[in-house]
Write a structure and sequence with these properties.
The protein is of the alpha+beta class and about 220 residues long. About 55% of the residues lie in helices and about 15% in strands. The protein is elongated.
Length: about 220
Amino acid sequence: MTETLLTFQNFNDIELANEFAELLKQQGIPYLVEENKKFLDSGFSNDVVPDISIKLKPEDFLKANKALEDYYKTQLDEIDKDYYLFEFTDEELIEIIAKPDEWGRFDYQLAQKILRDRGKEVKQEIAGLLKTNRIKELAKPESVHRYWIYLGYVSAAIGGLIGIFIGWTFAYYKKTLPDGQRIYAYKEDVRNHGTRMLLLACISLVAFIIIRWRLFMSR
């Protein structure tokens, strides 16, 4: 699989990851499972926690989202009535529908069902519009505090790796939207600062290496 694959969802439960992978397989959606190990320091021992990523082609994100939503719809009648969403107000449930990326796909479906059962159904056209507006909101590039700009330049000036890291992050870091789009995370002026940080850091690092080499050769 040579196409560019992006992380669609992360799991810390191998059974849930396999269940989701099987769902994708049934829908004919190609995927890649990557498993890493994270160490959780409990104070007495280092516990190994699975970190499983399901990766998809960007153009399959919407199809996978639809498959998951249809799957979770079949699970709604099995949920216990003491599930925390049943205590939410109508306004709080609508917020879940407006921000499904923060709450998860199951809660998104359940919030709609609870409102429907209360006689306050959110029409699918409205839910779709809320999703579209949410993606537009998430797509807005971010600004950063001046402190990070100053820190980046200072670190770059002394040839520090922190300056290189901050510069690269500002200039090139991209975020993945729920529909699979990849966009630059930061505003253009921040990205320009990042490019200059990288250039300054590289010049400073080369100068440091040259000075160290000359001092070594002069001994």
